[in-house]
Amino acid sequence: MMQENRPKRRAPAAPGITKPRARSAAEIREIFERFRAAEPEPKGELEHINAFTLLVAVVLSAQATDAGVNKATRKLFELADTPEKMLALGEERVRELVKTIGLFRTKAKNVIALSEKLIAEFGSEVPANREALETLPGVGRKTANVVLNMAFGEITHAVDTHVFRVANRLRIAPGKNVLQVELGLEKAVPREFGRHAHHWLILHGRYTCKALRPECGRCLLVDLCDSADKRVV
User: Fold this and answer.
1) Contact 142, 61 (CB under 8 A)
2) pLDDT digits (tens, 9 = 90+) for 28-48
3) What b/e readout covers 89-123, taking b as 16+ CB neighbours within 10 angstroms?
4) N or C: which end of the chain has fewer CB within 10 A?
């Protein structure tokens, strides 16, 4: 007996799977109003003395914690707070001082190389533009953004793992990679909050909106959050 050719039934769509949409301008303003009310002047946690030591600290911070970098750089910056002093210290001594930091050999080499380049090409001064910064050994887009923001007061959005996570969870600037999130933040964040935006997002991601165990019970944005990672309390 022949079977009827019945149309195949389509599997139902998975519940709750929707393409993330960015929030409205009013919602984003509310998020940053709350950040500002809680911490009007957020500070980066990397210890530094001047633009040069900030640059070195950020280069050393790749794939490392700020606390771990600070522990290593306190002695380093006592000895060398200028490109000339760093170069005189030498790669071997720098390597010894930062050996507790991940990838310390490569980082020590980059610190000496960028010091040489600053002396040779920039009059020993840290350049205040992205293109020049990114020519320095060990300096990429994120490092340049941090230096431009913290040393020169520019509105930039340095996207690390914390900023990437929070910007997506809160739908401030949904993106599949760090550049998408950075460009999204440039468009979404009101200018009056731009100077401090990435610090608020970093600190929120580091201490509250954590990757594995977000502490939603003490989050100042819990009523605005609709992330699938939200922990209902």
Assistant:
1) no
2) 999 999 999 999 999 999 999
3) bebebbbebbeebeebeebbebbbebbebbbeebe
4) N
At 143-191, the pLDDT tens digits run 999 999 999 999 999 999 999 999 999 999 999 999 999 999 999 999 9
Please tell me which residue in 66, 71, 85, 142 is annotated as part of the active site. Answer: 142
- Tell me the C-alpha distance between 65 and 73, whole Å: 12
Alpha-carbon distance 66 to 114, whole Å?
21
Active-site hit among 19, 99, 160, 223: 160
Across all residues in the chain, what is the average pLDDT?
Answer: 91
Q: Do residues 200 and 42 touch, judged by C-beta distance below 8 A?
A: yes
Residue 229 is among the residues annotated as catalytic for this protein? no
Q: Is 226 a catalytic residue?
A: no
DSSP for 40-99, please give it. SS---SS--SSHHHHHHHHHHTTTS-HHHHHHHHHHHHHH-SSHHHHHHH-HHHHHHHTT
153: left (phi over 0), alpha (psi -120 to 50) or beta: left
Confidence class for position 232, pLDDT limits 50, 70, 90: confident
Contact present, 46 and 58 (Cβ < 8 Å): yes
